[in-house]
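Exercise 7. Given the components listed, write out the predicted structure of the assembled complex. Treat all entries as one system.
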Amino acid sequence: MSRLSISVTLALVLGIALVMAVLNLALPEGAALHVPTYAVSLAGKYLSYAMLAVAVDLVWGFAGILSLGHAAFFALGGYAMGMYLMRQIGTRGVYGNALLPDFMVFLNWKSLPWYWHGFDNAGFAILMVLVVPGLLALVFGWLAFRSRVTGVYLSIITQALTYALLLAFFRNDMGFGGNNGLTDFKDMFAIPLHADATRSGLMVATAVLLCAELLVARYVVTSRFGKVLIAVRDTESRTRFLGYRPEAYKLFVFVLSAVMAGIGGALYVPQVGIINPGEFSPANSIEAVIWVAVGGRGTLVGAVLGAVLVNFGKTILTGALPELWLFALGALFILVTLLLPGGILGLLSRRRARPAPTTPATEPAE
Amino acid sequence: MILLRILLLLLALAPALARAEDDPFAGLAGSYDDISNAVAALAVSGNAQAEPAIAALQAGRLFVAPDNSLWIKRDGGAVNARTGAPGEPPGALKPVRQNNAVRRATEAAMGSLTLFSADPAVRAKAAAAIFEQRDTAAIPALDRALAKETNPAIRTAMQQARAAALLSGNAASEADRLAAVEVLRARGDMAASNLLESLSGQPKAVAAAAATAEASIARMQQMWSLAQGVFYGLSLGSVLLLAAAGLAITFGVMGVINMAHGEMVMLGAYTTFVVQQAMQTYLPSLFGASLIVAIPLAFIVSGVVGIAIERLLIRFLYGRPLETLLATWGLSLTLQQAVRSIFGASNRDVSTPGWMSGADQFGGITITYNRLSIIVFAALVMAALMAVLRYTPLGLQMRAVTQNRRMAAAMGIRTPWIDALTFGLGSGVAGMAGVALSQIDNVSPNLGQGYIIDSFMVVVFGGVGNLWGTVVSALMLGIVNKFLEPLAGAVLAKILVLVLLILFIQRKPRGLFPLKGRAVEA
Amino acid sequence: MSLRDTLLYVDGVTVTFDGFRALNALSLVLEKGEMRAVIGPNGAGKTTMMDVITGKTRPDSGQVVFGADTDLTRLDEPDIAALGIGRKFQKPTVFEPHSVWDNLLLALAGDRRPRFTLWARETAEERDQISGILQTIRLAEHRHRRAGDLSHGQKQWLEIGMLLAQKPQLLLVDEPVAGMTDAETEQTAELLREINRTRSVVVVEHDMAFVRALGVKVTVLHEGSVLSEGSIDHVSDDPRVVEVYLGR
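Answer.
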């Protein structure tokens, strides 16, 4: 996580995003270098997954919290955005009901549930994208870290958390569209969602926000706070005897990470066009962990790399040989944990740093 | 007053009775009223031919010849209804006419007639029918039947029927009525309660007694429904226990986070499927025993796969729980896809042997055999597991290795093999659970995934490393879940239980029955 | 001995683990500025005593008072650390991925709250302090090395340095010379004596030569309570101590 690698990553993410957007918008459809809109949206999807991965890496890589429920924060951010997009449909739904989204009309609901109020307003919705995941993380983390639930136990209850949310969002009574979730979006900020320019704009916005998240995360982990956090990760009890409160550090970073994941989810939904309870499935959360492991835990940059690579592989494989995808994913889990504990970046830096142990005393500070 | 009523009743019945004296069958050839009266008279006549005749009438097989003689049509020919002797009807036969009044009369008559059947089941059914219809006319027949009846259960049923009929009529004395209310209270089910509630025009004392009886029945019912809830809860708890039992070994005792645990269960379920397919083809006569055959095979299949997993994967990851978690999750995906490739993605049919289907009424609760079997099976599995850990050399070595690995190794225990065997044992138990779960869940590649979170929660809630804790925790969670269900619905109940568990673990991370001591601190 | 001079007052502390009495009505009084050596066979309760004082383990009964009137049994580890009680573990525990410098920086007394550390910048004063400690613990030329790459003895010193950086009133030091060479042992004894000029110290140690070299009052623990107390010569002549150490 040197300054160089982070700069290179930022440049690459922004550069590729801008080039794709330009090639999509400026060139006619038949041109050799034209980037089709679906590819733009696909890239946007990878980038929002990368935001989730950065969030996972922040807690797992630097605080040792293996959250198996981070997709829940991603999905909550997504639902908050989805609710705003639902309200933007207005009377253009199948039932043409100005007051209620289609699924509520279908369920014979008479009025909008209280928690849907305010989502007509973009500002409120964006606030909720940050607040809802953050609040859940705050409550959950406060309870968990205060009672010193760590390691595997924490992983198991984060998984139970997302599982409980999965079951809850499947219920029609919850008022989030049940099984089908929220979809059929038309506009975002009064701009048609399906226009090429919107798609490219969203993708570039995702890239910019991903870079912002990377910078925030990097600031946090290189600050003195980050040093304490790493100390907590490796020897939690020792930090207590030094007078630090590990629970406060973990809670802060957990909430920050949940908010980051929520932003990722909020950008994911308009680009994919749907959010449904499946996003809460525990398998999704664990998949996000393997993106980080593939790229390199505790490197931030590796999280981006892993998320993009694994999802690119998934797109290719599920298209060409769907039978093989789960085998490949399963093998990835096993091989990375057994043979490549540092991930791809670990492999690269090990190559580069090989002569280092012979001259440790003269190693530069950073 | 009462005397007068009886007199009037007798007068009303007089024509029918008069005719019945010379020929109880005569009315059957007459008008609808005549037919109804004749049926009622026949029913109490004690005539041996009464039952077949009325049964034939009910079935539409009783006919009148031009000379008013009565015939029952059978497969081969006709029988004279009066004598029961086969014969040739003299001319064209017309069916005995029926309207609703006649049908009611026949039904009631059959009820009282079958009270005398030689088959106890038929008698019990007859008593139940009278209870339902509250037929006052059946009281004399019931009295006679009661005098002869020796089977205590049927006697009770007859007394209840008599009480029901007596209360519905208006001939009985207040004392008799009070006695009848008492009989119904003792019966104590919903039907008795409904009957008591529907009573009207009763003397004050009887109405009061009926109200008290009703309340007492309501209390009884509450008790029974509580008991039923506990039974359902135990059955769900046993399912949880079976799913978690293997995990209590691999996670609880060894500390290995095996996310592929659910797939060990799934393999057990598929083993059951394969065993059933094979037995259907090669040994159809023994198909009823297919589950019994599947249990050891499932143990072996899952156990061997478990040993392979331990040797090939998990042993490289000891002391790195989070990595173990990820690697075994990958394994779980791989196993699911492998099974999907071999058996297809759709659900596979696993049939339930006859002895496991059906149900029995036990007091006020219904006990279905498949639920009961799972409870018994779970108890047997846990007992076997504890016995293995406590009394076998393998169990002793397992405990030694998990408590102090280096000391055990120094004493000549081959710890790597014990690790593998322990893991195999836990996996094998999961496989046996799969046999049971194949009976209540869809056998599909995703079968195991549905249980993994529940299983971990059960083990953690009970206290890691404590088998009894696992038992208590599984049963408790099952019962709590089942009692929440009527209040909140099945899905919400499950969510509530999960949330409660999350909160509980955050308060007491070491579960209900934590192991204490310095070893835990390290 | 007046109450005013008492720094640590342990009275009748009992700790049981599953029926096993790790501490049995242990009582101990430490004066301000005192250095005390605690010895005892394995399982005598030395580490548990430290756990109780630092808030890791709550006693079943008894009281632990720090300074004038602070009841330590009500506080948790960070609170107790903030009061000025530092602890060095038996197995050297330093933050391995961090440099020696950063280890000391994190140990330096100051605001421990996230809202401070998130924005904190290294001040000149902090740099001076760290440099000073690096001199004391003889690791000045290793300041940029990863703590995990240090030798065992260097890690022990780094941990003592971290204790110093905390500026505690009382240091609890668990087996500081385990695994050290003779030269290192001697240097450590010197270091502890130097520290003791400004602070109170409790040293738990097995190495009798080291304890003798420290030349301080010795408390012998056995089966969770104090068996004997006094100078090293006094306790090594005590027949009960001889019995415990040699009798089995």
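Discussion: The CA atoms of residues 91 and 175 of chain C lie 8 Å apart. The interface with chain A takes residues 54, 56, 76-78, 81-82, 86-87, 89, 93, 95-99, 102, 105-107, 112-114, 117-120, 141-142, 144-146, 149, 162, 166 of chain C (CB under 8 Å).
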